[in-house]
Structure formats: C-alpha cells, structure tokens
Amino acid sequence: MCGRFANGLAYDEFRRSVASALPPDSFKEENQSDEYSPTYNVAPATRYPVLRADSTSLVIEVMRWGIPLNKLGSSGQGEPAAGHRVINSRSDTLINTKSAWYKMLTTRRCVVFCQGFYEWQKVRVPGEKDQFRRVPHFVGMQEAGKGRIDAYGRERRLMPMAGLWTEAAGEKEHMFTIITTPSNKQLEFLHDRMPLILPDMNSILLWLGIGKEKPDTEALVRLLRPYDGVLDCYPVPPEIGKVGVSHANLILPVSHRKDGIVSMFASVQAKNERASSDIKREATKDTLLPPKEVWRGKSEHDEALPAENVPSPSPKRRKTDRTRPAHTPSLDMFWKTS
C-alpha cells in the first residue's frame, strides 16, 4: 500500500520533470502553483498535483488525496482510510463491472508523479516474542532522469503511480486515489502490497488514454501488475511518521544523513579514533626522541670536530668511604684507661 510519499520539488521544477517523461508539448500550460505546497511528507487529505487527460490533451490539476467513503456508496472496498477517505484502491477489485471503481477505471484515470513513497517494515524486537517495531523505508526509481537527486548526487526520474480520480457531487474539488498491486519480489519483505508503478512512457500514455478514442479495457487490465524493475529501497528515520515534518534528508538513507543517528555514531567513533591516534602519536614521539648526548670519552670521531665543539670531560670525583660518616670522631678519644 502507499500511505505517504514525497515531492519536494517546486511547481515549475515539478512540471519540467513530468514533461521529461512525456512527448513534447503534451499537456496544457496551466499554472496552479498557488494551490500546491512542496513537501517530502505528503499525507492523506493533502492537495497534490496529478496528471489527467481532458478532451484534447493532458492537464496537471491539484486534487485532494483520498475519496470519501460515503461517495462510493455500496461499492466501498474496505481499503485503509484516513479521515474516512479511501487513499488506495486494490487492483484486483477494479475489474468488477458493477462497482464505482470500474467506472473510474474506464473514464477517470490519472498519474501521480512523485519522488518516491514510504513504507514501514514490521521487525520483531530481539528477545521479545510478541513485540515489533516499524522501520520506515523510502522507495524510489533507480532509472536516470529528472526529479530526484540520490545520496550520491545522481539524478533519478520521478515515480509515475497509477491512480483514479472523481468529482463527487457536493464537493468543490476533485479527489484521487492510488492503485496498489501485490508487492514484487524485491519489496515483499517490506509489505504485501505496493503502488501500481507505470514502467515507461508508453504505459503512461496508455493509462491516460492518449491516442485512443475508446478505452482498451483489456490493455488497461494488463497494466495492473507489480513493477518488475529494480527500485531504490533503504531505511529512513522514524520522524517521517510525524505529519508536518518535511525536509530533504527524509528521502536519504540514514547512513548518509548528516543529522542521522548512524552518522552521529560514526562521527563520535571517528572522533574517538582520532583522539586515540593522537595519544599514540605523542607516545611514539617521546620514545623516538634522540637520547641526550653523553660524553663517553675520546672516540675515533673526535679529531674531526673543532676544538670548541669537543665537550670537556667532567673532573673525577674523590671516592669516599660510604661505610663511615665523613665527620664521625675516632673512638680513641672516648677510651679511658684504668
């Protein structure tokens, strides 16, 4: 599933990145920058720009993420909702011809471009039988293109997620939901479902119905499958779980973040290693100092030295009897005769 995703690009930069994934001049020049706020932590109910087809071309329109359950009537599929909104639609329920989802599949398709999405891995706490913790991961495209700069400074293209949109009666704005499929082999450790990622330009145009007078339902259904390419996937800090937290480091691996926990410990370890190295260097320096010059008497090298540079021998000291004090009086002076 997809409960959070990221797009920290300014509106103009976002449009250029979307345009790079499409044929030239394929959508209208409409500016909705006032209705869009870049964030690396897009949460349900956020207003977000999506790409959809109109009568003549493509258009980027800012919509609300999540379709109210009461607008779906009896066709609600029981998907996880935030604020009574369906944010994800299961791919296996779209082909039910009697549901509202099938009508949207044939008439109201859209593409949600983003830098990547977040998912939480359930990890057992060591030593605890029934205790688990949730480790957030970021998943982005690995292919080169415009839209995202990875931890090594390389450009990666935006992720095109397939979605559906609607204009429910009584609502002043359009709303969208993101389609999910079973996870591929790479991400099955993370969650049992993932967003429907459109792999290339042709699949994007097919999904949006460009060049087709009538929707090719069979071709659309063939797109409802897990992404079979390789994706960037790595752990990120748990702060992503807090709505409103947004900064560029959220989409970087923990180990590459300057403010990350791993980097903090690495910095402390490096500091300790430098301190230990300095101590060892000082100790080695003391042991390697040349010994002070001591006169050992005349040697074969003395003749080559100038007279003023030849040290003079120290005068010999008189040996004293250390068994008897120097000023001890003779015992004869204390001897008495009878």
Automatic annotation (TrEMBL):
Gene3D superfamilies: SOS response associated peptidase-like
GO MF, any single term: lyase activity
Key words, A-Z: Covalent protein-DNA linkage, DNA damage, DNA-binding, Hydrolase, Lyase, Protease
Bias-annotated ranges (Basic and acidic residues): 273-285, 293-304
GO biological process, one term: proteolysis
Tree of life domain: Eukaryota
Region listing for Disordered, in residue ranges: 273-338
One Pfam family per UniProt: SRAP
Similarity annotation: Belongs to the SOS response-associated peptidase family.
Protein name: DUF159-domain-containing protein
Organism, scientific name: Malassezia brasiliensis
